[in-house]
Specification:
Length: 67
């Protein structure tokens, strides 16, 4: 069943790609876009992954009553 879900996801990504970018997009432009998305994904994972990991290990501190 997992392979079926992966195929559905791949087809959805291809459909999104065809809606966002022209069919005559050059290989160089497609490679540059791919590199950009990979770098952005890595940056987000390193930045927000640390925050998520930290929030899982450290419970929020109790706030003092305003009174």
């Amino acid at each position: 069943m997992k392979a079926h879900d992966e195929m559905d996801e791949a087809e959805a990504l291809m459909e999104d790609w065809s809606l966002l970018f022209p069919p005559d997009l050059s290989d160089e432009a497609a490679a540059a876009l791919s590199q950009f998305v990979t770098a952005l994904s890595s940056l987000m994972e390193s930045r927000y992954g640390r925050q998520i990991s930290h929030s899982r290990h450290c419970p929020p501190q109790a706030q003092k009553e305003p009174f």
